[in-house]
Amino acid sequence: MYTPPVIRKLLTFAVTVAVNYHSCTGFSPFQQIFGGATQPSTSSASGVPPIQVGNPNNPLIQRANEFIYAKSGFYSESDPEWFSDDFVFRGPYIGPLNKSDYLSTMNTFNIWKAIPDISPNAFGFTIDPKDPNRVWFFVKNTGTFTGEDGFSLGDLVAFPPTGDSLDGAPETFSIIFDGTDGNRIKSLSVGYVNDRFEGNTNGDGAAVGIFRVIGLPFPKGPGPFLRFSQWFGTEVYNVGAYSYSKDVPNGGPIKALRVVQIRQ
């Protein structure tokens, strides 16, 4: 069958375009025209799974965001109704703390009053791929030490406001919700620094990073001096300051390093 040269050239051009289009997009241009096009899936040969991105409309991500900005006791006044009765707090230095001791600590530190413009600048919210009730995210704390009453540890230590600026290192946080209708928080972990060379907190996160900025002496740990000072402040010279709870939900040995927790 005779095919005019012009037709042969057009057919060759069409096939070339189709092949190139498919190699770039993963589907045929004819699928685009006549329907049935789907986004390409990752081939098993590539070994690269799809990118997992947190959905900002996920109710737990929205709840975690609200908590960290407006309910935590660190960046704002605490709201006890957000915490389950078996709540446990853990950080690199402080913890584990039960609900009562955590709220007492936050209410005594009043970080949000000492640094009125404190912000976590939270980002990167996502759901744990193995635990649908756990939200992970990052913070990079900022703020200015200008609170009228400064910072104090009860009647023991007082630091007047200096106007120093907080530029925190990036930290990993996680929140585990209890899965009930109220979705109260049963676990909060904070202060795990991702890059100790960023910011002006000397490589520390959470409250300890803020201590570095405002000038509150704190041992660079872990080490025997840090452990002794934490034990002494908790067990011997008890002015209401603790770094850990003796009664932690679900039991288990207390192995955490100890800093300063205030019990009123």
Task: Explain what the structure shows.
The N and C termini lie far apart (97 Å). The strands form 3 sheets. A 6-stranded mixed sheet has the order 2-1-10-9-4-3. It contains 7 helices and 10 strands. The model is unreliable at 21-43 and 252-264 (pLDDT under 50). With 264 residues, it is α+β, with helices and mostly antiparallel strands.
Q: Given the C-alpha coordinates, what overall shape results?
A: elongated
Q: How large is the radius of gyration? A: 27 Å
Number of distinct beta strands: 10
From the N-terminal CA to the C-terminal CA, the straight-line distance is: 97 Å
Q: Summarize the helix and strand pattern as letters.
A: HHHEEHHEEEEEEEEHH
Approximately how much beta-strand content do the residues carry?
15-25%
Give the key terms.
single chain, 264 residues, alpha+beta, six-stranded mixed β-sheet, 10 strands, elongated
Would you spell out the secondary-structure blueprint of this structure?
Elements: H1 5-25, H2 29-34, H3 59-70, E1 83-90, E2 97-98, H4 99-109, H5 111-114, E3 123-127, E4 134-139, E5 142-144, E6 151-153, E7 157-159, E8 165-167, E9 171-177, E10 185-193, H6 206-214, H7 224-236
